Amino acid sequence: MRTALITGxxxxxxxxLSHFLLGKGYRVIGMVxxxxxxxxxxxxxxxxxxxxxxxxxxxxxxxxxxLIRLVAEYQPDEVYNLAAQSxxxxxxxxxxxxxxxxxxxxxxxxxxxxxxxxxxRFYQASSSEMFGKIQEPRQSERTPFYPRxxxxxxxxxxxxxxxxxxxxxxxxxxxxxxxxxxxxxxxIEFVTRRITDGVARIKLGLADHLPLGNLxxxxxxxxxxxxxxxxxxxxxxxxxxDYVIATGRTRSVREFCELAFAHAGLRADDHIRIDPxxxxxxxxxxxxxxxxxxxxxxxxxxxxxxxxxxxxxxxxDLVRHRVKHGSWSDRP
Length: 332
Ligand code: NDP
Ligand code: GDR
Description:
Blueprint: E1 3-7, H1 12-23, E2 27-32, H2 43-47, E3 55-58, H3 64-74, E4 78-81, H4 88-93, H5 95-116, E5 121-127, H6 150-169, E6 172-178, E7 181-182, H7 191-203, E8 210-212, E9 218-219, E10 222-223, H8 224-236, E11 242-245, E12 251-252, H9 253-263, E13 272-274, H10 292-298, H11 306-323
Helix pairs in contact: 1-8, 3-5, 5-6, 7-9, 7-11, 9-11
The site of NADPH dihydro-nicotinamide-adenine-dinucleotide phosphate has 24 residues, from helix 1 and strand 5.
């Protein structure tokens, strides 16, 4: 039985990746940081019905000793570094924490592997935000980077350190440059989930409008379930590498709103209010990925359409608000 260690297991991708790896027969070790809210720590894993199958262990990406201990004790075959301060807007308010967790945290894990388990295969959660102010209309592994936020700059540092440890120490370290991916388990602060949660509340009469920022921003949105498969596929390759994972289609925040509101039988224009405070300090106007290398190398292709994704998210939020106010983790 192969063992995988996942940092960020309590987040969206950590939950879907755990589900996927358990399905492949892995032993899954999930690293969690200590929290005063430990009763809700496994809510996403519970939603997917796997909370009791993932072994949750204590650790923190900013504490190198905790990582060395985990890697030495469990000797994982594969390590997926998904933990991060991942919200771009917060990264201007907490740029140092973002640098410590999202940037240096990744290097802590690379060091832990170098010291205690250099044979493990390593996945780094890189981001399309690294392309920022885009230098080409469709971004691939060869497109120059231009980060536009402390988050993106921290991810870029972690990305290059992953490349550097691969080239310097021969680690099997790969970097997935993933474009935005969403699901019913997306954090409530990100725009798609904010929209689908808002649609559900408006539909059920719990609110009458939804404040949003820049509706013109364009993103290449996919489904998290598809994207965690690409993470695993990268680590199954004989040689490590860097791969863009994206759908290749880009749509505006406004278009996502229209899809989500329409799914609930509502008109977006009747309910959206523009809130200037929600505009970013510096914006990433448009992203559109080219995942041809991943398709050619290991046959990865996205499956979910944006319409299906928006519908699944709206339906899940309707259920959450209907049972609420029951439990967050009641499944549709
Ligand atoms: P989430 O924000 O949902 O999850 C982040 C995870 O990191 C949580 O489990 C969080 O734990 C954990 N974490 C934060 N700080 C620490 C720390 N100091 N030590 C240990 N764990 C910590 O992110 P996603 O699941 O959406 O994304 C996964 C990764 O992929 C992130 O690195 C993100 O930046 C990156 N990414 C995401 C994309 C997307 O569209 N979703 C696209 C490209 C990259 P806690 O629950 O305690 O807060
Ligand atoms: P992003 O995701 O910054 O692309 O990072 P987010 O959903 O937060 O923003 C996408 C776009 O929507 C615009 N927007 C709003 N965003 C939020 N959060 N809330 C609003 O009310 C709102 N109104 C408009 C934003 O300005 C932006 O242009 C995500 C994260 O998961 C990162 O960790 C990951 O690396 C990248 O995707 C790829």
